Amino acid sequence: MMAIGLLVLLVLMVSKVDADDVSYLQKETTALKLKIDLLSKRVFFKATFQDPIASCKGDQAVIFDSAQTNVGNAYSSTSGVFTAPFRGDYVFAYQTFSYGGADISWDLYINDQMALRARSRTSDDTSNESVLPVTLQAGDRVYVKSHLDLTFYGRNHSFFAGWLVTAF
Ligand SMILES: *[C@@H]1O[C@H](CO)[C@@H](O)[C@H](O)[C@H]1NC(C)=O
Ligand SMILES: *[C@@H]1O[C@H](CO)[C@@H](O)[C@H](O)[C@H]1NC(C)=O
Fold first, then answer.
1. Relative to the CA of 52, which ligand 2 atom is closest?
2. Which of 64, 70, 156 best tests ligand 2's pocket when mutated (most atoms within 8 Å of CB)?
3. How far apart are the C-alpha atoms of 19 and 75, rounded to whole Å?
4. How many angstroms separate the CA atoms of 86 and 91, rounded?
5. Which residues form the C1q domain (predicted)?
């Protein structure tokens, strides 16, 4: 009777330990799956213009209408707006390439707030780059805005690019 009682106790203990181990492993596996899911996310775009000489309207998003790369499809080549698909650290870069001596005033906007102001005062064809690392929440919108109506070198000269560094 005593021996059976001990055996039952032992079995109960062993099954308790096993259950703890299993639930620990399940938790670890779930956490790892989430990590892997975050690490596997890819967002990466580069957009330029179809036309070699392109133009844009003042006080509006510059529409880089030719997306050469758009992994994750977060950039819209019809609106010029990038929409963050999820929270993370991102980097954005754009190059302006002036046509003749036309100054370029293109700023980077996040959710309609200016995040980077850039000016290129040029006396001839000039390319300048601007880069901004930023943490975004899902749904945040990023775009380049021009102060003035402008004509500039487009296809493969001026571009807008961005990529996800880490989702978290
Ligand atoms: C833009 O490019 C011009 C011509 O190369 C250069 O003189 C100027 O310093 C650049 N401006 C910036 C902000 O990099
Ligand atoms: C523009 O760049 C793309 C991508 O690198 C390339 O495939 C294309 O041939 C270039 N177009 C011109 C006109 O240089």
1. 13
2. 156
3. 47
4. 14
5. 38-168
Question: Which residues is 152 bridged to in the sheet?
Answer: 54, 98
Q: What is the pLDDT along the chain (168 residues), one digit of tens a residue?
A: 566 665 565 556 666 668 899 999 999 999 999 999 999 999 999 999 999 999 999 999 999 999 999 999 999 999 999 999 999 999 999 999 999 888 999 999 999 999 999 999 888 899 999 999 999 999 999 999 999 999 999 999 999 999 999 999
Domains parsed from the chain with CATH numbers: 1-38 (no CATH), 42-167 (2.60.120.40)
Distance of CA 29 to the CA centre of its chain: 27
CA triple 83-51-122, angle to 5 deg = 85
Name the residue of 99, 128, 153 to mutate for ligand 1: max ligand atoms within 8 A of Cβ: 128
Instruction: Using only the alpha carbons of the chain, give its radius of gyration.
Output: 26
Protein residue closest via CA to atom 9 of ligand 2? 156
Q: Is the CB of 126 under 6 A from ligand 1?
A: yes
